[in-house]
Amino acid sequence: MKKSKYQFNVFVNCPFDDKYKPLFQAIVFTIHNAGYIARCALEIDDASKPRLNKIMNIIEECKYAVHDISRTEPDPKNELPRFNMPLELGIFLGSTRYGKRAHREKSCLIFDKEKYRYQKFISDIAGQDIAAHKNNQRILTKRLRDWLRTETRDPNIPGGSFVYDRFVEFKQDLPQLCKDMNLKIDELTYRDYVDIIGQWLENYDKLIKKIASMETLGIYQTQDDKEYDCLFFPDEKKAEAVGPLPPPGQSGARGPAFTVHAASKKEARQKLAAKIGPGHFM
């Protein structure tokens, strides 16, 4: 049965300040990596509508939600705590009781820094399963992934360790991605960040498929003792010679030095040999 857009939407209710930003970025990435859509108040920049109305409209469009109630410290400026997160949690929980039939199937994950800390400031949610992230991206990513897998019953969501490792790769690539898109990393809007995640995941999946179809042709050694690792990609009808390879025991940059179009491994070897120059396959 095909899922509706409502069934893919995940409302994110958490702090949006710089201190929480690493966890927020991990939440958004984990949701999109699972094939779902992170929704939050940051996606709308319409001053004509009251903020609370925007939030309630988003909640109405989401089957799932992630709430983080860990930010209870008083604001340094006014010495009062912020109650936005508990309020939005209450609206979401209320919608499961008083909303239309479809909304009674809503499901949410509630995060806090420590598992039972909520009992000191919002004890009325006792009975909800509170997950502790301990302000740690790895822990948060794994627990969010496990919850998504359980609630959506989606067998295509990869394991927690894999998701976190992929998130680390994404963070490493983020500065270059921003540069390629003429964006500054410290000026990214929510929409910018989501679009970059989507582009990166699409390219990552293409790379994984390419590697899965890859066949090795062997090492090609030239007359002057340069060596190239030769690879054939049947789905793309393309072959690459990577190198020259560094001497044994040494590291060095690896990238396609020669690329040819070929329909078979035999044709790929012949064309790569002609492209690289005199030598032989080892």
Q: Features of this protein?
A:
single chain; 282 residues; alpha/beta; Rossmann fold; five-stranded parallel β-sheet; five-stranded antiparallel β-sheet; 7 helices; 10 strands; 18% strand; elongated
Task: Write structural notes for this entry.
The chain is of the alpha/beta class. It has two domains: 5-211, Toll/interleukin-1 receptor homology (TIR) domain (Rossmann fold, 3-Layer(aba) Sandwich); 214-281, no CATH class. Helices cover 39% and strands 18% of the residues. The protein contains seven helices and ten strands. The strands form two sheets. It has a five-stranded parallel β-sheet, sandwiched between helices. A five-stranded antiparallel β-sheet has the order 9-8-7-6-10, sandwiched between helices. The protein starts with 8 loop residues before the first strand and ends with a strand. The model has no long low-confidence stretch (mean pLDDT 88).
